[in-house]
Amino acid sequence: MLYILNWFFTSNSYGQSLSKVMIVFAVLFPSISNAEGTISLNELLQLSYKNNPGVQEKHYEWSAEHSLIASQATLDNPMVGVSELNRGLKTQYGTISQKIKFPTKYIYQAKAQQSKADSFRSRLNEKKFEVRQQVITLYYAIYSAQKVIQLTKANIESVNEFARVAEKKYSAGKSPQGDSMKAHFELTQLELNLIRLKQEEQALQDQLKSVVNSPSLKNIEISQLELSPPKFFKEKIQGDNSKLLNQLKENSPVLRAENYKLKETEYKSTLAKWEFAPDFQIQYQQRISGEPIDSNILTIGVTIPLWFWKTGYEASAASAKKMAQEYKVKDTKLKLIADIKDLKGRVSTGVKTLEIYQTSLIPQAQGSYNSSRSAYQADKTSFLDLLDSERSLYRIKTDYYQSLRQYVSALCILERELGFSVSNLDSVSEVKNEK
Q1: How far, in Å, are 120, 123, 341, 429 from residue 251 at the CA level?
Q2: In 3D, which of 263, 258, 264 has the Cα closest to residue 126?
Q3: 280 DSSP assignment
Q4: Residue 435 placed within a domain
Q5: What is the CATH number of the domain that holds 154?
Q6: The pTM is what?
Q7: Is the separation of the CB atoms in 418 and 248 below 8 Å?
Q8: Burial of 172 by CB count in 10 Å (0-12 exposed, 13-18 middle, 19+ buried)?
Q9: How many angstroms separate the CA atoms of 380 and 391, rounded?
Q10: 431 in a domain, yes or no?
């Protein structure tokens, strides 16, 4: 340590001093985040947005549709060629022709494609929210599983201690042999539970790796943390249906995607009616060889909607698609409002449930267990009562972590449906970053 400090203070320049500051801090205060198996929830989310195949698929789908916008407002390629006129003397012409649609058609084609691209962008955001939900839910599921494994191991140690005490009491003639047998039976049950819990925890680790899709990701170890239940800010959700619907129109990626698709069908329906308007064909011919010397030809053609029923049927089909999408938007709104009210109720119930566990059930079960343990050691209660209190405490603590998993899952699904955060979980700003 003295050698490091002496080396630091003997630097001759500001740049050297700054470099040495970094090295000293790296030596004295190594980063905890570099430890094997430790990674923050935010880092997991960043990796998943970057690497998840589903997110990448939606990103490139949106990118493809966005790239087509300009093409829908652009003329078709012109045609060039050579024509020959034979009137005794051959005359050759260089020909160039260009088809031009009625200008309004280009406008509506581009608007329809823009709406389609916006719909795909919302689908990308929807996928990011889905991945966010999966990562956060799995993170808390792994945390809960590892905590339950810790509880099980602690219980195994406690029951081992019970077994030793029971054997001593049996040897002293203070308890029946059955107490020792009951302790060993309980121990076997806990060891079987531990095997099952470890397998379930590994399955959760594998699921997380598949979602994040990072080859460098190892099994995360977060049992040393004490994760408090995420806070739920229910006041952010408007209670009135009309206000809630306005929030959903602004934020919900599901509803936004359907609304953009509705705009696309509206533009296409209008475009189909404009198909009755004429298109133009412009052609210019310039003499290349032959007579007369100053010969050139300009031709302007206009389409005539002679087969008008074809265009009429296409307009009717486009109008029907627009009506179908309008009903789909209405159906999506009704389902979203119903789901959000249900999820809000489940999350609120989860908050109350976890509070009851923390303030009442766990302290009571812990107190009962401590009393039974002291009483058994003092020969004031039976071994069966001790086991019952131990089982009750174990069950209540494991139920707490199961309730935590369910609460976080419901909360994340709620935020996915809403399209914005109503908790103190990681920010959703990255979710809405289409770039």
Answers
A1: 15, 12, 16, 12
A2: 258
A3: E
A4: no
A5: 1.20.1600.10
A6: 0.82
A7: yes
A8: exposed
A9: 19
A10: no
Both 178 and 304 in one domain: the answer is: yes
The answer to whether residue 434 is domain-embedded is: no
Domain that holds residue 16: 1-30
Each residue's pLDDT, cut to its tens digit, for the chain (435 residues) gives 443 434 444 444 434 443 443 333 333 433 333 344 578 899 999 999 999 999 999 999 999 999 999 999 999 999 999 888 877 778 888 899 999 999 999 999 999 999 999 999 999 999 999 999 999 999 999 999 999 999 999 988 888 887 777 676 666 666 666 677 777 888 888 899 999 999 999 999 999 999 999 888 899 999 998 889 999 999 999 878 899 999 999 999 999 999 999 999 999 999 999 999 999 999 998 888 877 777 788 999 998 888 888 889 999 999 999 999 999 999 999 999 999 999 999 999 999 999 999 999 999 999 998 898 888 777 787 878 888 888 899 999 999 999 999 999 999 999 999 999 999 987 555 565 544
Residue 427, domain member (yes or no): no
Nearest of 180, 194, 148 to residue 405 by alpha carbon: 148
Residues 160 and 176 in one domain: yes
- State the burial class of residue 355 (Cβ atoms within 10 Å of its Cβ: 0-12, 13-18, 19+): exposed
Query: For the chain, what is the domain count?
Result: 2
Here the tokens at position 406 are 């369910």
DSSP letters along 7-71, please?
HHHT--SHHHHHHHHHHHHHHHS--GGGSTT---HHHHHHHHHHH-HHHHHHHHHHHHHHHTHHH
Q: Are 217 and 37 in contact (CB under 8 A)?
A: no
Query: What are the E-state strand segments in 201-343?
Result: 280-289, 296-302
Q: Are residues 209 and 244 in the same domain?
A: yes
One DSSP character per residue, 356-400 reads: HIIIIIHHHHHHHHHHHHHHHHTTSS-HHHHHHHHHHHHHHHHHH
**234 & 205 share domain:** yes
156 and 43 in one domain?
yes
